[in-house]
Design a protein that fits this description.
alpha+beta, three-stranded antiparallel beta sheet, 54% helix
Protein backbone atom coordinates (compact mmCIF):
# COMPACT_ATOMS: atom_id res chain seq x y z
CA UNK A 1 0.00 0.00 0.00
CA UNK A 2 2.84 2.39 0.86
CA UNK A 3 4.46 1.76 -2.52
CA UNK A 4 1.20 2.58 -4.30
CA UNK A 5 0.85 5.79 -2.29
CA UNK A 6 4.44 6.85 -3.08
CA UNK A 7 3.89 6.05 -6.75
CA UNK A 8 0.73 8.20 -6.82
CA UNK A 9 2.61 11.07 -5.20
CA UNK A 10 5.53 10.77 -7.64
CA UNK A 11 3.19 10.67 -10.65
CA UNK A 12 1.19 13.66 -9.39
CA UNK A 13 4.37 15.64 -8.77
CA UNK A 14 5.69 14.78 -12.23
CA UNK A 15 2.50 16.04 -13.86
CA UNK A 16 2.55 19.20 -11.76
CA UNK A 17 6.16 20.00 -12.68
CA UNK A 18 5.36 19.63 -16.38
CA UNK A 19 2.30 21.89 -16.01
CA UNK A 20 4.03 24.59 -13.96
CA UNK A 21 6.13 27.14 -15.84
CA UNK A 22 8.46 28.78 -13.33
CA UNK A 23 6.92 26.63 -10.54
CA UNK A 24 3.59 28.48 -10.89
CA UNK A 25 0.34 26.78 -11.92
CA UNK A 26 -3.40 27.18 -12.00
CA UNK A 27 -5.70 24.66 -10.39
CA UNK A 28 -7.19 23.88 -13.80
CA UNK A 29 -3.83 22.42 -14.84
CA UNK A 30 -4.19 19.65 -12.24
CA UNK A 31 -6.76 16.98 -11.62
CA UNK A 32 -8.56 17.14 -8.31
CA UNK A 33 -6.84 13.98 -7.05
CA UNK A 34 -3.37 15.32 -7.98
CA UNK A 35 -4.10 18.65 -6.31
CA UNK A 36 -5.34 17.00 -3.12
CA UNK A 37 -2.36 14.69 -2.68
CA UNK A 38 0.14 17.47 -3.43
CA UNK A 39 -1.55 19.83 -0.99
CA UNK A 40 -1.71 17.12 1.65
CA UNK A 41 2.01 16.32 1.31
CA UNK A 42 3.05 19.97 1.28
CA UNK A 43 4.16 20.30 -2.35
CA UNK A 44 1.67 23.04 -3.22
CA UNK A 45 1.27 26.48 -1.67
CA UNK A 46 -1.94 28.34 -2.46
CA UNK A 47 -1.28 31.94 -3.48
CA UNK A 48 -4.95 32.76 -3.87
CA UNK A 49 -7.94 30.79 -5.10
CA UNK A 50 -7.05 28.90 -8.26
CA UNK A 51 -3.30 29.69 -8.23
CA UNK A 52 -0.50 27.71 -6.62
CA UNK A 53 3.26 27.55 -6.23
CA UNK A 54 5.20 24.32 -6.28
CA UNK A 55 7.25 24.22 -3.10
CA UNK A 56 9.45 21.96 -1.02
CA UNK A 57 7.52 20.23 1.77
CA UNK A 58 10.39 21.08 4.10
CA UNK A 59 9.54 24.80 3.88
CA UNK A 60 8.12 25.94 7.19
CA UNK A 61 4.54 27.17 7.30
CA UNK A 62 4.48 30.95 7.31
CA UNK A 63 8.06 31.27 6.07
CA UNK A 64 8.21 34.09 3.52
CA UNK A 65 11.37 32.88 1.77
CA UNK A 66 9.68 30.65 -0.83
CA UNK A 67 7.24 33.41 -1.74
CA UNK A 68 9.87 36.13 -2.06
CA UNK A 69 12.04 33.79 -4.14
CA UNK A 70 9.22 33.21 -6.64
CA UNK A 71 7.50 36.60 -6.46
CA UNK A 72 8.60 37.83 -9.87
CA UNK A 73 8.09 34.43 -11.47
CA UNK A 74 4.53 34.34 -10.16
CA UNK A 75 3.89 37.86 -11.34
CA UNK A 76 5.17 37.16 -14.85
CA UNK A 77 3.13 33.96 -15.25
CA UNK A 78 -0.03 35.49 -13.79
CA UNK A 79 0.12 38.69 -15.83
CA UNK A 80 0.90 36.83 -19.06
CA UNK A 81 -1.99 34.43 -18.46
CA UNK A 82 -4.41 37.18 -17.47
CA UNK A 83 -3.47 39.96 -19.91
CA UNK A 84 -1.05 38.57 -22.51
CA UNK A 85 0.84 41.46 -24.10
CA UNK A 86 -1.80 44.01 -23.11
CA UNK A 87 -0.16 45.22 -19.92
CA UNK A 88 2.87 47.09 -18.65
CA UNK A 89 4.10 48.05 -15.20
CA UNK A 90 3.52 51.65 -14.18
CA UNK A 91 6.26 54.25 -14.43
CA UNK A 92 7.20 53.92 -10.74
CA UNK A 93 7.26 50.11 -10.77
CA UNK A 94 9.19 50.16 -14.06
CA UNK A 95 11.85 52.44 -12.54
CA UNK A 96 12.20 50.10 -9.57
CA UNK A 97 12.82 47.23 -11.99
CA UNK A 98 15.34 49.18 -14.10
CA UNK A 99 17.33 50.59 -11.19
CA UNK A 100 17.95 47.34 -9.36
CA UNK A 101 15.63 48.05 -6.44
CA UNK A 102 16.90 45.70 -3.78
CA UNK A 103 13.72 44.43 -2.19
CA UNK A 104 10.44 42.73 -2.95
CA UNK A 105 7.91 45.59 -3.29
CA UNK A 106 4.89 45.65 -1.05
CA UNK A 107 2.80 46.54 -4.11
CA UNK A 108 3.39 46.36 -7.85
CA UNK A 109 1.30 48.64 -10.07
CA UNK A 110 0.41 47.74 -13.64
CA UNK A 111 -1.71 49.30 -16.38
CA UNK A 112 -3.69 47.20 -18.83
CA UNK A 113 -5.73 47.58 -21.98
CA UNK A 114 -8.77 45.89 -20.48
CA UNK A 115 -10.16 44.41 -17.28
CA UNK A 116 -10.97 47.49 -15.23
CA UNK A 117 -9.36 48.09 -11.83
CA UNK A 118 -8.49 45.49 -9.23
CA UNK A 119 -6.23 44.88 -6.26
CA UNK A 120 -4.96 41.35 -5.89
CA UNK A 121 -3.85 40.53 -2.35
CA UNK A 122 -0.86 38.20 -2.25
CA UNK A 123 1.05 36.42 0.55
CA UNK A 124 3.21 38.19 3.11
CA UNK A 125 1.70 41.66 2.70
CA UNK A 126 2.34 41.98 -1.02
CA UNK A 127 -0.18 42.87 -3.71
CA UNK A 128 -0.75 43.86 -7.34
CA UNK A 129 -2.77 46.93 -8.27
CA UNK A 130 -4.00 46.75 -11.87
CA UNK A 131 -5.88 49.56 -13.59
CA UNK A 132 -7.19 49.98 -17.10
CA UNK A 133 -5.49 52.71 -19.14
CA UNK A 134 -5.27 51.61 -22.76
CA UNK A 135 -4.50 55.12 -23.99
CA UNK A 136 -1.25 55.36 -22.00
CA UNK A 137 0.09 51.88 -22.65
CA UNK A 138 3.50 52.39 -24.32
CA UNK A 139 4.00 51.28 -27.91
CA UNK A 140 7.18 49.46 -26.97
CA UNK A 141 8.12 47.72 -23.73
CA UNK A 142 11.08 45.87 -22.24
CA UNK A 143 11.10 42.72 -20.15
CA UNK A 144 12.79 42.85 -16.73
CA UNK A 145 12.39 40.10 -14.11
CA UNK A 146 10.10 38.38 -16.59
CA UNK A 147 7.52 41.19 -16.60
CA UNK A 148 6.73 43.90 -19.15
CA UNK A 149 8.02 47.34 -18.12
CA UNK A 150 8.30 50.77 -19.69
CA UNK A 151 11.65 51.74 -21.19
CA UNK A 152 13.62 53.61 -18.53
CA UNK A 153 13.59 56.95 -20.37
CA UNK A 154 9.81 56.88 -20.80
CA UNK A 155 9.26 55.89 -17.17
CA UNK A 156 11.45 58.79 -16.02
CA UNK A 157 9.54 61.24 -18.16
CA UNK A 158 6.23 60.07 -16.75
CA UNK A 159 7.25 60.52 -13.13
CA UNK A 160 5.94 63.63 -11.31
CA UNK A 161 8.32 66.28 -9.89
CA UNK A 162 7.69 64.87 -6.39
CA UNK A 163 9.62 61.75 -7.39
CA UNK A 164 12.89 63.69 -7.36
CA UNK A 165 12.07 65.12 -3.92
CA UNK A 166 10.77 61.96 -2.24
CA UNK A 167 12.97 59.30 -3.86
CA UNK A 168 16.22 61.12 -4.69
CA UNK A 169 18.33 57.96 -4.66
CA UNK A 170 16.14 56.15 -7.19
CA UNK A 171 15.83 59.30 -9.29
CA UNK A 172 19.57 59.85 -9.36
CA UNK A 173 20.33 56.22 -10.22
CA UNK A 174 17.73 56.27 -12.99
CA UNK A 175 19.08 59.48 -14.55
CA UNK A 176 22.64 58.19 -14.43
CA UNK A 177 21.60 54.77 -15.80
CA UNK A 178 19.87 56.09 -18.94
CA UNK A 179 21.97 54.82 -21.83
CA UNK A 180 21.21 57.67 -24.23
CA UNK A 181 19.60 61.03 -23.53
CA UNK A 182 18.27 60.91 -27.08
CA UNK A 183 15.60 58.61 -25.66
CA UNK A 184 14.63 61.28 -23.11
CA UNK A 185 14.58 63.98 -25.78
CA UNK A 186 12.35 61.90 -28.00
CA UNK A 187 9.77 61.65 -25.22
CA UNK A 188 9.59 65.35 -24.34
CA UNK A 189 9.48 66.26 -28.03
CA UNK A 190 6.60 63.84 -28.66
CA UNK A 191 4.81 65.25 -25.62
CA UNK A 192 5.69 68.81 -26.73
CA UNK A 193 6.57 69.61 -23.13
CA UNK A 194 9.11 72.37 -22.48
CA UNK A 195 8.38 71.92 -18.75
CA UNK A 196 9.58 68.32 -18.85
CA UNK A 197 12.60 69.32 -20.95
CA UNK A 198 13.52 72.01 -18.41
CA UNK A 199 13.16 69.57 -15.53
CA UNK A 200 15.50 67.03 -17.16
CA UNK A 201 18.07 69.68 -18.09
CA UNK A 202 17.97 71.02 -14.52
CA UNK A 203 18.33 67.51 -13.11
CA UNK A 204 21.45 66.75 -15.15
CA UNK A 205 22.94 70.14 -14.28
CA UNK A 206 22.43 69.27 -10.60
CA UNK A 207 24.19 65.94 -11.18
CA UNK A 208 27.07 67.85 -12.79
CA UNK A 209 26.60 66.01 -16.08
CA UNK A 210 27.05 69.08 -18.25
CA UNK A 211 27.36 67.06 -21.44
CA UNK A 212 23.91 65.54 -21.12
CA UNK A 213 22.33 68.73 -19.87
CA UNK A 214 23.72 70.64 -22.88
CA UNK A 215 22.65 67.95 -25.33
CA UNK A 216 19.06 67.98 -24.04
CA UNK A 217 18.93 71.79 -23.99
CA UNK A 218 20.15 72.12 -27.56
CA UNK A 219 17.65 69.52 -28.78
CA UNK A 220 14.79 71.34 -27.08
CA UNK A 221 15.88 74.73 -28.46
CA UNK A 222 16.29 73.29 -31.96
CA UNK A 223 12.66 72.21 -31.77
CA UNK A 224 11.62 75.79 -30.90
CA UNK A 225 11.02 75.25 -27.20
CA UNK A 226 11.61 78.10 -24.77
CA UNK A 227 13.61 76.40 -22.07
CA UNK A 228 13.58 77.22 -18.36
CA UNK A 229 15.82 74.67 -16.59
CA UNK A 230 14.52 73.82 -13.11
CA UNK A 231 16.34 71.56 -10.66
CA UNK A 232 13.71 69.07 -9.36
CA UNK A 233 15.93 67.83 -6.51
CA UNK A 234 15.65 69.43 -3.08
CA UNK A 235 18.97 68.02 -1.84
CA UNK A 236 21.89 70.41 -1.73
CA UNK A 237 24.31 67.96 -3.33
CA UNK A 238 24.03 64.72 -5.33
CA UNK A 239 24.19 61.43 -3.44
CA UNK A 240 26.70 59.97 -5.89
CA UNK A 241 30.02 61.59 -6.67
CA UNK A 242 32.67 60.96 -9.27
CA UNK A 243 31.67 59.80 -12.74
CA UNK A 244 28.21 61.04 -13.78
CA UNK A 245 27.51 57.72 -15.58
CA UNK A 246 26.92 54.32 -14.00
CA UNK A 247 28.48 51.02 -14.99
CA UNK A 248 25.30 49.41 -13.68
CA UNK A 249 22.39 50.50 -11.48
CA UNK A 250 23.54 47.99 -8.87
CA UNK A 251 26.90 49.75 -8.58
CA UNK A 252 25.10 53.06 -8.25
CA UNK A 253 22.89 51.75 -5.47
CA UNK A 254 25.85 50.37 -3.52
CA UNK A 255 27.74 53.66 -3.87
CA UNK A 256 24.68 55.67 -2.88
CA UNK A 257 23.90 53.53 0.17
CA UNK A 258 27.51 53.70 1.35
CA UNK A 259 27.51 57.48 0.97
CA UNK A 260 24.24 58.06 2.81
CA UNK A 261 25.08 55.71 5.70
CA UNK A 262 28.54 57.07 6.57
CA UNK A 263 27.17 60.02 8.53
CA UNK A 264 25.01 58.10 11.02
CA UNK A 265 27.89 55.68 11.74
CA UNK A 266 30.38 58.52 12.30
CA UNK A 267 27.97 60.21 14.68
CA UNK A 268 27.31 57.00 16.63
CA UNK A 269 31.03 56.26 17.06
CA UNK A 270 32.24 59.84 17.59
CA UNK A 271 33.40 58.95 21.11
CA UNK A 272 35.15 55.74 19.98
CA UNK A 273 37.95 56.96 17.69
CA UNK A 274 40.38 54.61 15.98
CA UNK A 275 43.62 53.90 17.80
CA UNK A 276 47.11 52.87 16.80
CA UNK A 277 47.98 49.30 17.78
CA UNK A 278 51.23 49.62 19.75
CA UNK A 279 51.82 45.86 20.04
CA UNK A 280 50.65 43.95 16.93
CA UNK A 281 51.91 40.67 18.40
CA UNK A 282 49.68 41.05 21.46
CA UNK A 283 46.72 42.04 19.25
CA UNK A 284 47.15 38.80 17.27
CA UNK A 285 47.45 36.78 20.47
CA UNK A 286 44.17 38.29 21.65
CA UNK A 287 42.51 37.14 18.44
CA UNK A 288 43.91 33.65 18.89
CA UNK A 289 42.60 33.56 22.46
CA UNK A 290 38.98 34.12 21.38
CA UNK A 291 39.03 31.64 18.47
CA UNK A 292 36.83 29.02 20.11
CA UNK A 293 34.22 31.62 21.09
CA UNK A 294 34.32 33.05 17.58
CA UNK A 295 33.98 29.70 15.82
CA UNK A 296 31.20 28.50 18.12
CA UNK A 297 29.12 31.65 17.70
CA UNK A 298 29.75 32.25 14.00
CA UNK A 299 28.93 28.66 13.03
CA UNK A 300 25.94 28.46 15.37
CA UNK A 301 24.46 31.62 13.83
CA UNK A 302 24.52 29.80 10.47
CA UNK A 303 22.68 26.78 11.89
CA UNK A 304 25.57 24.40 12.45
CA UNK A 305 25.49 22.33 15.66
CA UNK A 306 29.04 22.80 16.79
CA UNK A 307 30.41 22.24 20.29
CA UNK A 308 33.55 23.60 21.87
CA UNK A 309 34.78 20.00 22.25
CA UNK A 310 34.53 19.53 18.49
CA UNK A 311 36.33 22.81 17.82
CA UNK A 312 39.10 21.85 20.23
CA UNK A 313 39.38 18.39 18.62
CA UNK A 314 39.81 19.93 15.19
CA UNK A 315 42.30 22.49 16.43
CA UNK A 316 44.35 19.73 18.08
CA UNK A 317 44.35 17.73 14.85
CA UNK A 318 42.56 14.71 16.36
CA UNK A 319 39.48 14.92 14.10
CA UNK A 320 39.98 12.13 11.55
CA UNK A 321 37.41 12.00 8.73
CA UNK A 322 39.46 9.43 6.82
CA UNK A 323 40.03 6.97 9.64
CA UNK A 324 36.87 7.46 11.70
CA UNK A 325 33.58 6.80 9.81
CA UNK A 326 31.68 8.75 12.46
CA UNK A 327 33.82 11.83 11.83
CA UNK A 328 33.41 11.44 8.07
CA UNK A 329 29.64 11.75 8.39
CA UNK A 330 29.76 15.00 10.32
CA UNK A 331 29.00 17.91 8.02
CA UNK A 332 29.13 20.18 11.05
CA UNK A 333 32.65 19.03 11.78
CA UNK A 334 33.67 19.76 8.20
CA UNK A 335 32.23 23.23 8.55
CA UNK A 336 34.23 23.71 11.75
CA UNK A 337 37.46 22.51 10.13
CA UNK A 338 36.86 24.83 7.19
CA UNK A 339 36.23 27.67 9.61
CA UNK A 340 39.57 27.08 11.31
CA UNK A 341 41.38 27.14 7.95
CA UNK A 342 39.66 30.38 6.97
CA UNK A 343 40.23 31.93 10.41
CA UNK A 344 43.95 31.26 10.12
CA UNK A 345 44.07 32.96 6.72
CA UNK A 346 42.23 35.96 8.14
CA UNK A 347 44.70 36.15 11.03
CA UNK A 348 47.53 36.42 8.51
CA UNK A 349 45.65 39.20 6.74
CA UNK A 350 45.13 41.05 10.02
CA UNK A 351 48.90 40.87 10.55
CA UNK A 352 49.45 42.47 7.14
CA UNK A 353 46.97 45.24 8.00
CA UNK A 354 48.71 45.89 11.32
CA UNK A 355 51.97 46.18 9.38
CA UNK A 356 50.49 49.01 7.35
CA UNK A 357 48.83 47.46 4.30
CA UNK A 358 45.45 48.77 3.17
CA UNK A 359 42.68 46.77 4.86
CA UNK A 360 40.43 47.11 1.83
CA UNK A 361 43.21 46.09 -0.52
CA UNK A 362 44.14 43.04 1.55
CA UNK A 363 40.52 41.88 1.75
CA UNK A 364 39.99 42.45 -1.98
CA UNK A 365 42.89 40.11 -2.78
CA UNK A 366 42.08 37.39 -0.27
CA UNK A 367 38.33 37.14 0.46
CA UNK A 368 37.86 34.41 -2.14
CA UNK A 369 40.66 32.44 -0.47
CA UNK A 370 38.66 32.65 2.79
CA UNK A 371 35.66 31.25 0.93
CA UNK A 372 37.62 28.37 -0.56
CA UNK A 373 39.08 27.54 2.85
CA UNK A 374 35.60 27.39 4.37
CA UNK A 375 34.37 24.76 1.93
CA UNK A 376 37.37 22.82 0.62
CA UNK A 377 36.96 20.12 3.29
CA UNK A 378 33.30 19.64 2.36
CA UNK A 379 34.27 19.32 -1.31
CA UNK A 380 36.91 16.71 -0.50
CA UNK A 381 34.25 14.76 1.40
CA UNK A 382 32.07 14.73 -1.70
CA UNK A 383 29.25 16.76 -0.15
CA UNK A 384 29.88 19.67 -2.52
CA UNK A 385 31.04 19.66 -6.11
CA UNK A 386 34.54 20.98 -6.93
CA UNK A 387 32.88 23.61 -9.14
CA UNK A 388 31.37 25.10 -5.99
CA UNK A 389 34.83 26.45 -5.14
CA UNK A 390 35.05 28.37 -8.42
CA UNK A 391 34.04 31.68 -6.87
CA UNK A 392 30.99 33.93 -7.11
CA UNK A 393 27.60 32.32 -7.51
CA UNK A 394 26.16 31.77 -10.98
CA UNK A 395 22.51 31.70 -9.98
CA UNK A 396 19.97 33.81 -8.08
CA UNK A 397 20.07 33.62 -4.30
CA UNK A 398 17.50 34.61 -1.70
CA UNK A 399 17.93 35.36 1.99
CA UNK A 400 15.62 33.46 4.32
CA UNK A 401 12.64 35.51 5.52
CA UNK A 402 14.05 38.75 4.05
CA UNK A 403 12.44 41.14 1.59
CA UNK A 404 15.92 42.05 0.39
CA UNK A 405 16.86 40.63 -3.01
CA UNK A 406 20.63 40.46 -3.68
CA UNK A 407 21.87 41.64 -7.09
CA UNK A 408 21.70 39.14 -9.98
CA UNK A 409 24.81 37.06 -10.52
CA UNK A 410 25.53 38.94 -13.74
CA UNK A 411 26.13 42.09 -11.65
CA UNK A 412 28.41 40.52 -9.03
CA UNK A 413 31.77 41.39 -10.55
CA UNK A 414 30.89 45.08 -10.84
CA UNK A 415 29.20 45.12 -7.42
CA UNK A 416 32.15 43.56 -5.60
CA UNK A 417 34.61 45.86 -7.35
CA UNK A 418 32.49 48.82 -6.26
CA UNK A 419 32.42 47.58 -2.66
CA UNK A 420 36.20 47.21 -2.41
CA UNK A 421 36.77 50.53 -4.17
CA UNK A 422 34.66 52.12 -1.43
CA UNK A 423 36.50 50.28 1.35
CA UNK A 424 39.89 51.27 -0.03
CA UNK A 425 38.94 54.93 -0.42
CA UNK A 426 37.19 55.21 2.99
CA UNK A 427 39.46 56.78 5.64
CA UNK A 428 37.43 55.75 8.71
CA UNK A 429 37.99 52.23 10.02
CA UNK A 430 34.64 51.79 11.78
CA UNK A 431 32.77 52.87 8.66
CA UNK A 432 34.77 50.31 6.70
CA UNK A 433 33.96 47.62 9.28
CA UNK A 434 30.21 48.16 9.57
CA UNK A 435 29.43 48.97 5.95
CA UNK A 436 31.86 46.32 4.72
CA UNK A 437 30.03 43.65 6.72
CA UNK A 438 26.55 44.82 5.78
CA UNK A 439 27.21 45.43 2.08
CA UNK A 440 28.98 42.10 1.67
CA UNK A 441 25.78 40.40 2.86
CA UNK A 442 23.71 42.84 0.78
CA UNK A 443 25.54 41.69 -2.37
CA UNK A 444 25.65 38.03 -1.24
CA UNK A 445 28.34 37.01 -3.75
CA UNK A 446 28.44 33.31 -2.81
CA UNK A 447 25.88 30.54 -2.60
CA UNK A 448 26.89 29.89 1.01
CA UNK A 449 29.24 31.29 3.62
CA UNK A 450 28.34 34.95 3.10
CA UNK A 451 27.66 35.62 6.78
CA UNK A 452 30.89 34.06 7.99
CA UNK A 453 32.95 35.91 5.40
CA UNK A 454 31.15 39.19 6.15
CA UNK A 455 32.13 38.83 9.80
CA UNK A 456 35.73 38.06 8.83
CA UNK A 457 35.71 41.13 6.58
CA UNK A 458 34.36 43.28 9.42
CA UNK A 459 37.15 42.16 11.72
CA UNK A 460 39.91 42.83 9.21
CA UNK A 461 38.52 46.35 8.91
CA UNK A 462 38.26 46.57 12.73
CA UNK A 463 41.97 45.78 13.02
CA UNK A 464 42.82 48.72 10.77
CA UNK A 465 41.45 51.05 13.46
CA UNK A 466 42.75 49.19 16.49
CA UNK A 467 39.26 48.02 17.43
CA UNK A 468 38.92 44.60 19.09
CA UNK A 469 38.04 41.40 17.24
CA UNK A 470 34.26 41.44 17.51
CA UNK A 471 32.08 38.34 17.85
CA UNK A 472 28.36 38.27 17.14
CA UNK A 473 26.79 36.16 19.88
CA UNK A 474 24.45 33.43 18.73
CA UNK A 475 21.92 34.25 21.48
CA UNK A 476 21.53 37.68 19.85
CA UNK A 477 20.99 36.26 16.37
CA UNK A 478 17.49 37.73 16.03
CA UNK A 479 18.70 41.26 16.83
CA UNK A 480 21.63 40.80 14.44
CA UNK A 481 19.40 39.74 11.56
CA UNK A 482 16.88 42.48 12.35
CA UNK A 483 19.66 45.08 12.12
CA UNK A 484 20.81 43.72 8.75
CA UNK A 485 17.22 43.72 7.49
CA UNK A 486 16.63 47.32 8.62
CA UNK A 487 19.72 48.42 6.70
CA UNK A 488 18.83 46.47 3.55
CA UNK A 489 15.10 47.19 3.37
CA UNK A 490 14.59 50.44 5.27
CA UNK A 491 18.05 51.90 4.50
CA UNK A 492 18.47 52.53 8.23
CA UNK A 493 21.97 51.53 9.33
CA UNK A 494 21.63 52.63 12.97
CA UNK A 495 20.10 49.40 14.39
CA UNK A 496 22.93 47.33 12.90
CA UNK A 497 25.66 49.81 13.81
CA UNK A 498 24.35 50.04 17.38
CA UNK A 499 24.24 46.25 17.61
CA UNK A 500 27.88 45.96 16.53
CA UNK A 501 28.86 48.69 18.97
CA UNK A 502 27.28 46.66 21.79
CA UNK A 503 29.01 43.43 20.71
CA UNK A 504 32.38 45.23 20.65
CA UNK A 505 32.17 45.74 24.43
CA UNK A 506 31.97 42.04 25.37
CA UNK A 507 34.99 40.87 27.37
CA UNK A 508 35.52 37.35 26.06
CA UNK A 509 38.14 36.63 28.70
CA UNK A 510 35.29 36.58 31.20
CA UNK A 511 32.94 34.49 29.06
CA UNK A 512 32.94 30.75 29.90
CA UNK A 513 33.32 28.31 27.02
CA UNK A 514 30.15 26.36 26.25
CA UNK A 515 30.53 22.61 26.46
Amino acid sequence: MAEIHHSRLADALDRAVKAAPKQVLQSAALSRSDREILLDRGYLQEVFKGWYLLRKPTDKAGDSTAWYATFWDFLSVYMDERFGVDYCLSASSSIDAHTGANMIPSQVIAMTAHGGKMVLTLPHNTSILVYQDEKNLPDSVEVVNGVRVMPLALALCRMPPSFFENQPMNAEIALRAVKSVDDLARVFLEMNSPTLAGRLVGAYEFLEDKERATQLARTAQAAGMILDPVNPFTRKTPILTGSPRLISPYVGRIQALFGTMRGPILELFKDMPAQHVPDPKQYLQNIDAVYEHDAYNSLSIEGYRVTHELIAKIRAGTWDPDGDPKDKQQRDAMAAKGYLAAFQLVQKDVKRVLEGESAGGVARKDYQDWYRALFSETVRAGLLQPADLAGHRNMPVYIRASRHVPPPYTALSDAMSALFDLLESEDNAIVRAILGHWLFGFIHPFNDGNGRIARFLMNVMMASGGYPWTIVRTERRSQYLAGLEAASVEHNILPFATFIQEEMTVDWNKEPARR
